[in-house]
Amino acid sequence: MKLGVVISGTIHVTILTWGLWNISAPEPFVVSRVAALPADFIPFDEYTRSVEGDSKASRKEKTAPVPTKNPPEREPAKNVGDTKIDIKSEVKAPPKPEQVDISKPLPKAKEVQPSPVVKPEPQPEKMVKETPVPTNELSSLNEPPKPLNEQKFEEAPAKADEGLKFAKLPDYVPLPVSRPRPPEPKTAKTQQRKQPDEIKQAIDKASAKDEEISSEDKIAALLNKQDPAATGKKRSPEPVSLGSEKSNSSEKLSRSEMDVLRNAIEQCWNVPMGLSDVEDMRVTITMNLAKDGNIDGRVDVEATGGQNQTRRAFAESARRAVLKCAPYNLPNEKYDTWSQVVVNFDPSQMF
Amino acid sequence: MQKIGKFSTQIVLSVILACTGMINFAMAVVEIDITKGNVEPLPIAITDFQGAGPQRQLADDIGRVISSNLQNSGLFKPIAKAAFVQKIKDSNTVPRFEDWRVINAQALVTGRIVRERDGRLRVEYRLWDVFGADEMASQQFFTTPKNWRRVAHIISDAIYQRMTGEKGYFDSRIVFVDETGPKDKRVKRLAIMDQDGVNKKLLTRGSDLVLTPRFSPSRQEITYMSFEGGQPRVYLLQIETGQREIVGNFPGMTFSPRFSPDGQKIIMSLQTDGNANIYTMDLRSRKTTRLTNTAAIDTGPSYSPDGKNVVFESDRGGRQQLYVMRENGANTQRISFGNGRYSTPVWSPRGDLIAFTKQRGGKFLIGVMRPDGSKERILTEGFHNEGPTWAPNGRVLMFFRETPGAGGGPRLYSIDLTGYHERLVPTESFASDPAWSPLLD
To answer: Is residue B1 part of a domain?
Structure first.
C-alpha cells in the first residue's frame, strides 16, 4: 500500500516535471500591423456598368433609327369581291326587266346578214437559212480544218422497217466556236467579306428601297446621333466604344469622391466663430455646376435659425465658401450626377 | 413606456421619409453635409484710404487703426499690403475682384477722407464681398479731425458687425487701475482708456488705494472700492464731472460693487463680524436690501443681463464656489463643481456664459461656463490671472495677468471665446482690474 503510493507519487512528479519543461506554450501568433486601406462598397451592377466600354477605344456614335411611319390607312372596300384592289365603282342596281305588252304584235326582227367569214391567209413560213460562214478562227486551231459541208450524220442502222418515217434532221448543226474550258480550280478561300464600299452600297440600296423615308428624315437621323452605348463586352455585337457619355442613372459619386468634395468645401469655409445661436443655424446652398466644374448661374442660399443679423452673416460665410472653392474637380464622366450640388452647412457639432 | 413607443414611431417615420427623399434626389443631385470648417481668421484686405494733402497721414492712420482692431478681434486676418495686386485709385469705382481673389481676400475695404468747407472731415468706406463680387456695406461719417480715431473704431464696428453678424466692441473704453512705482510702494490710480490702449486719462490722484472699478451700463459712471479714510468703501464717480460719493452708509466694510443691468442699482458685499453678505442699493431711493444671510463669505455678485438672476461666490460649502440665486435672494443653487476654487464670476452681456477665475494646483485660470454650470471651458492659465471682464458683445474677455518677481507686475490681456487669440493690451505702466464699458453712444 505504502509502496504503491510512493511509486504513484514518484511517477506523477516525474511526468509533471518533464511536462513543465517540455510541453511549453506555443509561439505567439504575431500579426504584423497593416495600415487601414480606404475601401468603397460598390454594388455588383454598378461595377459591371463601370467596366463596360474601353477607355482606349474611340467614341463610336450610332445614327439614330429613322422614325417609322404607319402605312396609309385604307378606306374600307366599297365593293365586295375577290379583287385585291378596290375598284371604286358605283354600286348599280340590276336593270329592271322591261314590261312587254303581249297584246301588241312584236316588232319585226331585222334580218341580219351574216358577215362573210374572213379566211386567214396562209402565211408562208419564213425559213431562215443560216449560211455558215467559214471563219478564220478555226485555222488557228491545231486541228486540221474540216469542210463544214462534209459533216454527215449516220443513218439509222436498221433499214428493215422503212415504212417508218423519221423526222427529218437538220443537215447541219453549228459547231462551238471555242473549246470548252475546264472549270477553274477552286482554292481554299477566307470567308468573303464585304468591303466598306459594298456595305455603303447595300445601305444605299436598302434605303433607296424605302421610298417612304423622306430626305429630311435621313438628314435628321444623321444629325441626331445616339449616345454610344457603353458596350464592348466580349459577346456584344456592338463595336467597342469609349464608355457612354450619358451615365447610367444608378451611377453615383463614390464615397471617396464625395469626401474630396466635402473636404474642399470644409477648407474653404471660414466659420464665423462665436456667433450666438450658431448651433441652431442651418444653411442649404443649391448650385448648378457646369462641366468644367465652375458654378453655373447664381447659387441659391436658404438659411434657417438664429437672428436676422447672425443668420445673414452665417449664410454669407457659407456662400463665400462655395464660391471660393469653385471650380470643383469632379469626374467628368459622372457629370450628370453632379450637375446640381446641394450643400448643407450644419455647425451643430462644432461648438 | 408610451413615450418610448411614440419616439420609436417617430424614428421609423423619419427613416421612411429620409429614404423616400434619397430615392427622389439620388438620381440628379449630389447632397453633402458640411459639419466642420476652417476656424482660421477671415482674410480681409484693408486698402489705404484715399486722402489728399494734409489728409494723407490721417487716411493712413485710419486704415491702420481699422486693420489693428480687426486683427485684435481674432476673427480677421488683414492681408499684408505688399501682396495687393490692384492699387485702388478711386474708392468709388468697383474694384477688380479677380485681383483680390488671387490673394485670397474674402472681403475688401476701401475708403477716402475729404475735408469739408466747414473744416470737418468726411470719412467714407466701402466693404466689398470679393467672391460674391458685390458691395456689402458703405457709409460716410462727418467728424472733427481730432475725433478721427473714434471714426476708425466705428467703421471697425460696422465691418465687424456686417461680417460676423455680432455687434462690434471697438468703440468702447476700459476703466482700470493704473499702477506705478516699485512693488512695495505701488501707487494705484483709476484710469480710463480706449479699448485698444490709447487715450489714457487718469481719474484719481493716487493718494489712496483703489480696487475693482466697474462701469455703469447706462451712464458715464464708475463704481469702485477705495480705502480713502482708512475704511474700504464703495464709491460712485461721474467720469465727466469727477464728482464722487460713497454708496450707502454701512457700518462695516463694503467691497466688490457692480451695477445692475439697468444702471439703477448697485450690488455689493458688506462685511460684518467676519462674514460677508450681499446687499443692493437703489441709486434713486438709496434703499438697501439684503439678499443673503449666511455665516459664510458671499461676495463678487454679478447680475444676469435680464436682471433676474445674480451669480456670486461663496465659501459656504467649505471652499469658494459659484452660486446663482434669484435677484431677490431666493432659490440659491451651486453651479460650479469642478476641481479647485472659483471666484470673480461675471455674467456675459449676451447672457449665455459666466466667466470666472479658477485656482487649481497653484495656478490661476480664466474660464467660462454656462449659467447652469455645464460646459466649463478654460481659456487661459498662468501664474496669476484674475478679474475677467466682458467686451460689450460678449465675444472677448479682458483680464489682468501678474508676472512673478521683484520687477514683475500686472498687465492687461484680452482673449476671445475660442481661447486662441490672446494678446497684450499695450499700456504705458502696469495695469490691473480692467472693466469694459458698454458701447459708447
So the answer is: no
